[in-house]
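Hi there, hope your week has been kind to you so far. It would help a lot if you went through both lines with me. No rush at all, and the record is pasted right below:

***
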Amino acid sequence: MYQQEDYRLLLPSASNSIPSRLRIFSGTANPGLSEEIACYLGMELGRIKMKRFADGELYVQLQESVRGCDVFLVQPTCPPANENLMELLIMIDACRRASAKTITAVIPYFGYARADRKMQGRESIAAKLVANLITHAGAHRVLACDLHSGQSIGYFDIPVDHVYGQPVILDYLASKTICPNDVVVVSPDVGGVARARAFAKKLSDAPLAIVDKRRLGHNQAEVMNLIGDVKGKVAVMVDDMIDTAGTMAKGAELLHREGARAVYACSTHAVLSPPAVERLSGGLFQEVIITNTVPVPEHQRFPQLTVLSVANLLGETIWRVHDDSSVSSIFQ
C-alpha cells in the first residue's frame, strides 16, 4: 500500500506532549479529515454538541472549556455550502463567547472562492462577503488550502495561512512508475497556467501544455485548441478543483485527439457536482487523483479514483501556528 509522506518536521516536540492549551473541534462537513488531523497530532477532538431544530436552525454548544486556549475549528464550506458556512460561523461565535484565546478557522475547501471578482455589472463579490462574515464572527486567523485565486487572501482583514495540496499529489506521482521524460503537465485553462507551471517545475521540470477554452456559461466549458505537444506523452492535467468535470473531460478528449498516451487528472478539491462522476469514470482518464479536503461519499467513488489525505499537512500547519513556527518552510 502507498504510504504518504509524513509532514511532521517537529516530531520530537509534537509527539512528547501536546500542550493542554491546544483544542481542535470538528464541524459536520468533514469529520473524517478532522479525526485524521487529531490522530496526527496525537490528541482527541474536542467535545461539541450540535443539533438542528425542527425549523432548520442550528444549535452549537462546546462540551469542554476553551478559556485561554488556541482553538482550531475544522470545517470546509463544501456543499451544502450555506449550511456548512453557517455552522462554521456559529462555532466561531460559541468559541468567542467561551473566552478562547485565539480562534483559527481551518477551511480545507473555501466555498464561494470562485466568486472573487465582478465579471458583469450588478454582481456581488461573495468571496469578500464570506471573508467578512468569518472575520466579524470572531475568527483571529484562517487556515485555507489551495484557494481558487491568491487575491482571496486579501479579502480577509485577519492573517491567512495558505497551504497547498501539491506536495501530497507530487509525492504520490513520484511513487508511480512513469518515466519523467514521458510526462507533460497540462493546464486545463489559461487562468491555471501559473499553478500548472509550478507543478511542472516540481515534477522533474516537465514540459507544459495549455488547453485554450471559451466558457459559455456557469459550469459549462468549450475546448478550443491545445498549446503544446502531447503526442505519445503521459498528460497530467492539474487544476485546483473539479466541480462538474466539464473542463477536465473536454480537455481530456482534446488530449487524446492530439495523441496523448494516457491522461491523469489531479486536483486538490473534488466537489463532484453531477454529472462529474459519469464524466470522470467514462474511460477518458487513466487515474483521477484528488485529496480529501471535500469528503467523497461511497456512491461517488469509482475504480480510477485515488483519494489522498491532507491530514498530515494540515496537522503540521496547525502545530506550527500554535507553536509560532514558520509555515512556509513546509513547502521549501
